[in-house]
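Example record

The entry below shows one chain as it appears in the dataset: sequence first, then structure tokens.
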Amino acid sequence: MIDVRDVEAAAARLDGIAHRTPVLTSRTLDGMAGASVHLKAENFQRGGAFKFRGAYNKIASLPEDARGRGVLAYSSGNHAQAVAIAATLLGTRATIVMPEDAPPAKLDATRGYGAEVILYDRWREDREAIGSRLSAERGVELVRPYDDPLVMAGQGTVALELLADAPDLDVIVTPVGGGGLIAGCATVAKPRGLRVVGVEPENGDDTARSLAAGERIELGIPHTIADGLQAPSPGELTFAVNRDLVDEVVTVSDAEIVDAMAFLFDRLKLVVEPSGAVGVAALLARRVAGERIGIVLSGGNVGAARFAELVRPR
């Protein structure tokens, strides 16, 4: 499907465009985990999340005539913002299909980046069907959030950078929604002998169940605060990669996610959205083990009011 050369090609396209996000450490976190922990802070990426990497790699790879007609995507927020930014940088137009209940901060940011937003009801309508229909009607390229080799390769640059900065890791941990991030990262990490662990919200464990069953399982839209991880099933292409390369997928509760968000804010002064905090949540809950652990903080797109609401003591 993809290999390390595809990820390296994506890194070349992204060079000087995407931010090379920092890898952060915390002695407190190391002590709590009993390990050396390295956090890849994609909350500092353009658009506030890792999604910019895959979106830019995809759109930059389009033929000039296709890119000139515009692009269309569907997303709950982070991919939406990423496509909007990438389209602007590459001189084209973006239309984004977003759920009506997407976080206001993500809706506002997507519009602010210049995209046309079309709303839909995520509980009653199928975003993939809407996206496919609109892209055909408008004659524009559909930029899928994860189920695309160019998108997966772009996301894999996260691991390429992390392992350049922390080359002695033995475990890499990423959030899992549709599976594009972990597929790209596993493509880089597995040939180097690392253990690859994904983390899902416990109410949305479609990838964990699918890997156990050996086939894609459809669960429907999960109810979780991790809005970026609400894929109803793994992607077809991502699952083909992850079935071969991912060692384990563990789950965390919404309460554990909030605890991780609060820890990251208190100890590292990082604002991380629920989806981005699941790796640290799994570490703090003792569901991830290793001596030298790399964790991807996938994004930080949470509004101030929502952040305060989530971490407020109960």
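Notes for this example: The chain has a mean pLDDT of 95. DSSP finds 14 helices and ten strands in the chain.
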